[in-house]
Specification:
With 266 residues, the chain is an alpha/beta fold. The protein is built from twelve helices and eight strands. The structure holds NADP nicotinamide-adenine-dinucleotide phosphate.
Length: 266
């Protein structure tokens, strides 16, 4: 099995490293218009080989990940227009219908990944095009799972996935920043504040997942009557936190839909 990458930038490096690290029998190849990016890719990924162009990537791979920026994809689609291969697009905002209109014989799977893929903690969703079969989807799901969570969903939901997990790392980072500022304002030194807040976010997420607790169950566990958490929650729950988060996700989802519409018109 060989997995190819068209564009060997940040996301390609993250996915290729996860796949190569999890399954040494998978060969990796890639091409990039930037010689530096290609050299970094082949030096960082065990066993990865450079291809001489994008057509060679597609022709020599069982599955090719399209990992250029959305605005740079047109020349690539023209270059590989004749392919019948399995093409996995991670391009934000480019719909399957657009890819299928250019790659009229390829089997397309569209993925919405997120940046924690860089540390093997991705949260991704993926959807199959009209020519991708069950084996294609199973293969893509298995390969993505090496980089973290990969859930299959209908393509219509990928805009909402962008609002939750695609853009989500920026929203969570903003919350982490607010907690850290509050910790520093309360007198905790900067470096210790960062460490405490990061460990609290990752520890809480892990506790919920591993003990299969609902957020409400965990909140009850931490809230003794008349105690500190109950006092803090009174402030948080009297705010419009729920509404702000919902609007953040809705607005991001709507923007993703708009970008998809623009991509379809071009
Ligand atoms: N990073 C994220 O958080 C994230 C999340 C979800 C989805 N995505 C999607 O992932 C894709 C890749 O993102 P990234 O952050 O990895 O981008 P990146 O680091 O800029 O990597 C893209 C690479 O493709 C190269 N390239 C451009 N045109 C090419 C061509 N015709 N043939 C071969 N290579 C070409 C670029 O070279 P030059 O720089 O020299 O042009 C660059 O090295 C994007 O479509 C993005 O929408 C990213």
């Amino acid at each position: 099995m060989r997995v190819g990458f068209i564009g060997t930038g940040n996301m390609a490096c993250a996915l290729a490293a996860a796949i190569a690290g999890a399954d040494s029998s998978v060969g990796i190849c890639g091409f990039d218009v930037g010689p530096e990016q290609l050299a970094r890719f082949t030096s960082q990924i065990p066993g990865a080989v450079p291809a001489s162009d994008n057509v060679e990537v597609v022709n020599s791979s069982d599955l090719t990940v399209l990992a250029v920026k959305p605005q740079g994809v047109r020349p690539v689609l023209e270059e590989i227009a004749d392919t019948e291969a399995l093409i996995v697009s991670i391009l934000a905002g480019i719909r399957i219908a657009v890819l299928e209109a250019h790659l009229t014989r390829a089997r397309i799977v569209r993925v919405m990944p997120n940046t924690p893929a860089l540390v093997g903690e991705m949260a991704a969703a993926y959807a199959g095009g009209s020519r991708a079969d069950a084996d294609d989807l199973e293969l893509v799901g298995t390969l993505l799972s090496h980089a973290g969570l990969a859930i299959r969903l209908p393509e219509e939901l990928l805009d909402a996935v962008t609002g939750v997990s695609g853009s989500g790392p920026a929203f969570v980072a903003r919350l982490i920043d607010a907690f850290t500022s509050a910790a520093v304002a309360a007198g905790i030194p900067d470096a210790e504040a960062v460490r405490l807040v990061l460990a609290t976010f990752s520890g809480t997420a892990r506790l919920l997942a591993e003990k299969q607790l609902t957020p409400q169950e965990l909140i009850s566990m931490v809230s003794s009557p008349g105690g500190t958490t109950v006092a803090g929650r009174a402030v948080l729950e009297s705010s419009n936190l729920e509404r702000v988060i919902r609007q953040t996700v809705w607005t991001t989802t709507a923007r993703s839909r708009e970008l998809g519409d623009e991509g379809a018109r071009k």
